[in-house]
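Escalated from tier 1: adenosine-5'-diphosphate holo job.
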Amino acid sequence: MPVLVMKFGGTSVANLDRIRRAAKRVGVEVAKGYDVIVIVSAMSGKTNELVGWVGETSPLYDAREYDAVVSSGENVTAGLMALTLQEMDVPARSWQGWQVPVKTTSAHSAARIEEIPTDNITAKFGEGMRVAVVAGFQGVSPEGRITTLGRGGSDTTAVAFAAAFDAERCDIYTDVDGVYTTDPRIASKARKLDKIAFEEMLELASLGAKVLQTRSVELAMRYNVKLRVLSSFEEQSDAAGTLVCDEEEIMESNVVSGIAYSRDEAKMTLISVADRPGIAAAIFGPLSEAGVNVDMIIQNIAEEGRTDMTFSCPTDQVKRAEKAMADAKARGDINYHDLVADTDVAKVSAVGIGMRSQSGVAAKMFKTLSDEGVNIKVIATSEIKISVLIDRKYMELAVQALHDAFELDKA
Ligand code: ADP
Ligand code: ASP
Ligand code: MG
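Tier 2 regenerated the structure:
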């Protein structure tokens, strides 16, 4: 029988009623003749609570134990979903990541899926089971320890299962009815897209649009998984939601197709480092070893052989970055006067494959922000995106102004 993967995010399994509603959707697909693999997230808010408990217990925690704690939310919803389906007379069974096993790297809290053996679940389908409910977000390392895939990782679990089982489609059920030109929660004029190209979705996701985890889009692109985002709150037809697909499948697209933002950015400046060959390696090597994801980098103009070096990273990595720099300074590998962390910043980005062939997007973006009185602190560009770091208090204003300026409310 053809396999369908259905993933339900946190708000879609937030309580028993919602789990029942999701299970009914699953029942509809089973009735159509699919063997279904359901991937569940933890109930909404649960993972945040678990992350909070870890941080309170141990600020610079052991990542293996972080994963042991933080993965547990999904175990509860997987069992409850299987029970709910059984109550509906749908033969269902739950799996935790290690039971499948979802084999991952040992990069705790940011592990990558390496292999998903299909024999175990396929055998059960052969015995008449119709739904395999799998706890998303988690796997097992080569050392046999529980791992997690990074926040939002259930999306990646879903796409990886779709690829492994050669599923007909991977449906991501969430609390919005598709991918929009920007987050509909902060811009009321955001417009739902029927289709979006993999590359654009990849950029939007990596720049903060959390509707899909970045890695899930990467995997879908690599394994050609038919990926769809849709709402678990409305009755859905087969054409509902947004299809993430190849660029060629999209007839017409705007130069800019979406605006993304990320609240959780910090701007870190090393004041007065020696301007010498090797300094960048001496700074960014230890940051990378400490697991700090550096995004934007600026080296300021040097004066008398010294310079300031600015970089951005997620706010929750500021402590790690400070420690890595202090340790490097103590070892004598770098020397700086001060390390200033500005955690009141946000990143706003415009994304569009049309930018490859059309100029003027950056100029228009900067003019729009300047008209709104928003000061730009750092700029980064690539072939299909422009990002700026601004004061966080202007973030929503900037997103709305850019959405208007690029007329994203119009198709
Ligand atoms: P889930 O719990 O189902 O995984 P998430 O909260 O992770 O849901 O992702 C869905 C959220 O993504 C939406 O509620 C919306 O606020 C946010 N979002 C951000 N950017 C976009 C966008 N461009 N289109 C749709 N949703 C977006
Ligand atoms: N529960 C995890 C999180 O909140 C994984 C997910 O929902 O995708 O990040
Ligand atoms: Mg999510």
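The chain is about 35% helix and 25% strand.
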